[in-house]
């Protein structure tokens, strides 16, 4: 349920570049920087876009939930084939695997050293990006029953942490990340509706998060996100974006949202 479709006749890159160059002339510095970053992000193929977003998040000095959730989104809110393409693009772009950069850039918490049974954020992220999730409608019940039995056995023998263990041993960031994992796998539209809401609530706008969420889902499930946003916040997504952005940046986002201008 996307809001955009690829046109039957795709214009050549040179034509797109020339139009963008003309469009950027005369804009204010702040608006130009915001819209330039948004448009460039949109022009990348989805795997390259996500690879660049992942690298930017991992290289950021501040490893807050805002940065780390990008890795979760890439790993859990897309198809396994897309994740594999992102990993390949990451290696090509940065001469390093996504897994290696997670290990080297997500610091080991002090509590992990003192309490070895505690969960490690890097371990969680590494498991998410290196796992292959089954993504088809048809389910092999024999395999499903075997895996369910293993899961039950692990819980019974306390080899798998319970909620209380996660809350007591894990950091606030880890607990938040695990919640995002569940949302992204089960109902990605709920997660991205919340990302958009959080990016525009209060004073100022988190343009990076707002842009990422809308661009990432415009060709996937934006209609579901719009419905979820309306249901949860009692206001339309269009009205929320209109109330918090302006100018060409607003026009750009509204186009991706599929709004009638």
Q: What do these coordinates show?
A:
The protein is mainly α and about 260 residues long. The protein has one domain. It is built from 16 helices and no strands. The chain has helices at about 15-25, 30-45, 45-60, 65-75, 80-95, 100-105, 110-115, 120-130, 140-155, 165-170, 170-185, 190-200, 205-215, 220-235, 235-245, 245-255. Helix 2 packs parallel to helix 16 and helix 4 runs parallel beside helix 11 (about 170-185). The longest helix is centred in the middle third of the chain and has 16 residues, at about 140-155. The model is unreliable at about 110-115 (pLDDT under 50). It comes from Rhododendron williamsianum. It holds the Pfam family Annexin. Keywords: Annexin, Calcium, Calcium/phospholipid-binding, Metal-binding, Repeat.
Report the sheet-strand fraction: under 5%
Number of helices: 16
Structural class comes to mainly alpha
3D shape: globular
